[in-house]
Structures are given as structure tokens and as C-alpha cells.
Amino acid sequence: MQPLIFICHSYGGVLLSNSMVMASTSEKESENSIYKSTYGMMFFGTPHRGSPKKGILKMVEHAYPNRVPALMETAPDSGALKLQLQLFTELVRDRKVASFYETEPTAAPSQVS
Is 62 contained in some domain? Predict the structure, then answer.
């Protein structure tokens, strides 16, 4: 198996975390092999602990209204996200993981065109 290195941005990192948890417990070898082959992951601006919905909803609700329910699951108080982070952290202890994030708040645009 070739080693895999994932590079994720924003909610793509949340999807990868979820996918790794699912792949690690999958009985399908094709799915489990993704977990086994993963050497490392790089996360850029991934809200592992959730994200305030207010600014993101402003950006998404007009352009992609069907994605709003999924964003509601990524609130900082989301129990599902907390559990996912806990499981993911346990799974990747033997992997190379790097996270990059902003240390200053970013203003949300007032309108998406």
C-alpha cells in the first residue's frame, strides 16, 4: 500500500476526521485500508471544535441554502463534533498531523456573489 497524506481546508478537515473514524472501524477492507494507509494529515483552518455559525451562515445561506442544516451540526456545543474529535484524536496518535489556523478573527463578508 502506498502511504497517503491528506491536505484539508476548513470543513474538509471535519469530513476527513469523520471519514477516518468510519474507515478505521469498517469491515470493508477497501475502506479500512484508507485508514491503514494514511501516513499524515495537514489541516488548514479546520474547526475541529466547532465554529460560530453566525458568520458562516451569512456566507452560505443565500448561495447554498441546502447546506445550512449540515453547518448547524458544527456549532461549538455540538456533542457529535466533540465525540468525533475525541475518537479521531485517539486514532491518529501514531500518524503525522499538522494544524494551521488563524490567531486573529476574520470578518465575514456581508454578501456572497
Answer: no
